[in-house]
């Protein structure tokens, strides 16, 4: 029996709107929200975009509150409305760092929440919520390569943290059931996923991995789906989907 391979169209939210990934990431990293620039990169409201992906056949979505991730507000109500008006299963991330923000996220009715920054800032809290919520929690490993080594990033990819491997080892021992692995330098860049990073993470954990960052073609998706036996269970689709290089029906036809 073939192992399922999940696709997660990404809904990257800034200032209440779902935006093209590259622009949303750039604006978040620069902490710049020029309204004239925003308007050119808007895909629609989160509700409109989630319904578009659903109508094209998506069963799951990846929702990123980039304002919450960067500490510049949140888009909670927009996310809540989008999830409540759809039938897809949502994976939600951005700014989930304590009991209050975790409870709010879980109350959205999502399938899963991703926790990233808290891994570097409050590992004891991560241990607690992994034990309490199990499969409802995925740990987002947002990674940047510096001088040949892989480091974790936090606060919307703006802060460099510690080395990846000791943290991954610690999370494995805590019982983390799923990881979302992103090379942050690939995000929105259409430069192919970091297959080397993904293979190395797969080799160091028995938990399944969702790949993020860099998908530029159907061939990239085929390569990732061929890595199912290594532990890759799905892929997050951003820029290439948002600007029409790939589309959901063509992806569903090959995975």
Automatic annotation (TrEMBL):
GO molecular function, one term: 1-(5-phosphoribosyl)-5-[(5-phosphoribosylamino)methylideneamino]imidazole-4-carboxamide isomerase activity
Presence of keyword Amino-acid biosynthesis: yes
Organism annotation: Providencia stuartii
GO biological process: L-histidine biosynthetic process; L-tryptophan biosynthetic process
Keyword field: Amino-acid biosynthesis, Cytoplasm, Histidine biosynthesis, Isomerase
Alphabetized Gene3D superfamilies for the sequence: Aldolase class I (3.20.20.70)
Gene Ontology CC terms: cytoplasm
Protein name: 1-(5-phosphoribosyl)-5-[(5-phosphoribosylamino)methylideneamino]imidazole-4-carboxamideisomerase
Location(s) in or outside the cell: Cytoplasm
Assigned EC number: 5.3.1.16
Amino-acid biosynthesis as UniProt keyword: yes
Catalytic activity: 1-(5-phospho-beta-D-ribosyl)-5-[(5-phospho-beta-D-ribosylamino)methylideneamino]imidazole-4-carboxamide = 5-[(5-phospho-1-deoxy-D-ribulos-1-ylimino)methylamino]-1-(5-phospho-beta-D-ribosyl)imidazole-4-carboxamide
InterPro entries: Aldolase_TIM (IPR013785), His_biosynth (IPR006062), HisA/PriA (IPR023016), Isoase_HisA-like (IPR044524), RibuloseP-bd_barrel (IPR011060)
Superkingdom of origin: Bacteria
Top EC class, one word: isomerase
Family listed: Belongs to the HisA/HisF family.
Pfam families: His_biosynth (PF00977)
Pathway(s) it belongs to: Amino-acid biosynthesis; L-histidine biosynthesis; L-histidine from 5-phospho-alpha-D-ribose 1-diphosphate: step 4/9
């Amino acid at each position: 029996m073939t192992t399922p391979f999940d696709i997660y169209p990404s809904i990257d939210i800034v200032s209440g709107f779902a935006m093209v990934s590259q622009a949303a990431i750039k604006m978040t990293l620069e902490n710049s929200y020029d309204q004239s620039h925003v308007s050119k990169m808007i895909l629609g409201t989160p509700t409109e975009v989630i319904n578009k992906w659903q109508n094209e056949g998506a069963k799951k979505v990846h929702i990123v509150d980039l304002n919450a991730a960067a500490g510049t507000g949140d888009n909670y109500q927009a996310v809540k409305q989008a999830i409540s008006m759809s039938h897809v299963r949502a994976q939600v991330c951005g700014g989930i760092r304590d009991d209050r923000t975790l409870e709010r996220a879980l109350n959205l009715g999502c399938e899963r929440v991703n926790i990233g920054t808290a891994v570097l800032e409050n590992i004891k809290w991560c241990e607690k919520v992994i034990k309490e919520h199990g499969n409802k929690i995925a740990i987002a490993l947002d990674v940047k390569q510096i001088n040949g080594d892989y480091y974790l990033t936090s606060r919307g990819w703006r802060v460099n943290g510690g080395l990846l491997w000791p943290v991954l080892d610690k999370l494995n021992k805590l019982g983390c059931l799923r990881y979302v692995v992103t090379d942050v330098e690939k995000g929105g860049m259409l430069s192919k996923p970091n297959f080397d990073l993904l293979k190395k993470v797969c080799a160091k954990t028995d938990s399944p991995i969702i790949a993020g960052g860099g998908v530029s073609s159907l061939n990239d998706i085929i390569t990732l789906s061929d890595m199912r036996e290594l532990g890759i269970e799905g892929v997050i689709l951003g820029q290439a989907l948002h600007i029409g290089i790939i589309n959901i029906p063509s992806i569903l036809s090959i995975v």
